[in-house]
DNA sequence: CATAGATGTTTACGCTGCAAACATAGCGCG
DNA sequence: CGCGCTATGTTTGCAGCGTAAACATCTATG
């Protein structure tokens, strides 16, 4: 039977309007809900109210959609670090401690997205430049903290990149261990924060100018 | 036509002999070769010279096979740390530095297995106890190093577990960043080792008794 | 106002993980 | 010694997946 054409636009219009964002959003939600392995593109489509082939007008393939999700994640993460930095102007030690807490907190609240971001979905020939750039931006936020600390003599180290790497590694490692193999499984955010503080103290001790 | 029965055993016997190990081995190889996403159970079977339903006699499902692979990985990793410890008797600082190098080196040589181990294949209701135990054993190796260092006054910290967490987080974080999102992609093992040493120095500085 | 390009749908295909029914082989018990 | 029981491997079948191609619909541009 012919579908009602024209007058009642109530019945979801043929064109979605903003399918790109809807798909990313739906993918984010379903990803956290079902896990990366159980996430099917078709279910994302169903969730966005669209046929299972529609995404191919906006994404080359499923991996490209996941890259968009990862990119959005890096942007959020970078923003949280930036906010932590702004929260303690002129206090680099407080800035990293707070940034570390924010990092761990965000990751534990979005475990699947975090795993996606740092997993290894890139097959190197498909190194989406946008994704790389978003990750770089998050890195730069940490760099700014360390750089200020080193320029005011609070932090030491032979070069800023080494110190950034040390700090990021420690926080990121804790994060992945928490998400990881079932060894560390704190029940509530309080415990997460306590662990983050332990690592934070050690990091600051390790990179402090002496 | 009826298959030759009995006399010439050349023609691969109906029973494989040691299918369990063969499947784990084949899965390990194919995992590193094709990546976790592209790994199909059917291809593992073909590689082991067996029909695509055979594994179900030995593993509940595909995830169970991957768990066995992960478990073997943790055993290997724990062994490497243990060897690093044995290499510098009475020198805890050298022990962690060397263990850290071994950790990073092993992970970069077996990236897919590492991602599998620390990814998040456990759905918590399927927390295979063997897997948890293998991971715990690797943890214990690090614990022994830190514990000795603290008992001889080389390392500080309020409790051993906190120090272990700090050290492991830093090394593990570096590892995952190297494997990770394309930010750190050192070409050769030399670079990897240099990065490991940077993190190692910071960790030791951070946990040293002062 | 027509029509070209962008956006969404339908249909189809090969591959996947898994279950059920079937075949074979080795092992213990009479 | 032989018979069947059980462990192991195979075949067949199914629903769901990602993706491509052909088709339908809308929207914007001349």
Describe this structure in words.
Two copies of one chain form a homodimer. In chain A, α3 (62-87) packs antiparallel against α4 (92-109) and α4 crosses α5. Chain A has two domains: 15-59, Arc Repressor Mutant, subunit A, CATH 1.10.10; 63-207, Tetracycline Repressor, domain 2 (Orthogonal Bundle), CATH 1.10.357.10. Helix content of chain A is 66%, strand content 0%. Mean pLDDT of chain A is 88; it is low at 1-10. With 210 residues, chain A is an all-alpha fold. Chain A is built from eight helices and no strands. Chain A starts with 18 loop residues before the first helix and ends with a helix. The longest helix of chain A is centred in the middle third of the chain and has 26 residues, at 62-87. The first copy, chain A, is elongated and about 65 Å long. Chains A and B meet through α5, α6, α7 and α8 of A and α5, α6, α7 and α8 of B. The first copy, chain A, binds a DNA duplex (30 and 30 nucleotides) through residues 5, 13-16, 19, 40-42, 50-54, 56-58, 61-62.
Helix and strand topology:
Two copies of one chain form a homodimer.
Chain A: H1 19-34, H2 41-48, H3 62-87, H4 92-109, H5 111-118, H6 129-151, H7 160-179, H8 189-207
Helix pairs in contact in A: 1-2, 1-3, 3-4, 3-5, 3-6, 4-5, 4-6, 4-7, 4-8, 6-7, 7-8
Chain A binds a DNA duplex (30 and 30 nucleotides) through residues 5, 13-16, 19, 40-42, 50-54, 56-58, 61-62.
Mean pLDDT of chain A: 88
Task: List segments of chain A where confidence is low: pLDDT < 50 over at least 5 consecutive residues.
Answer: 1-10
Measured distance between first and last alpha carbons of chain A: 80 Å
Task: Name the CATH superfamily assignment of the largest domain in chain A.
Answer: Tetracycline Repressor, domain 2
Q: Give the class of chain A from helix and strand content and strand pairing.
A: mainly alpha
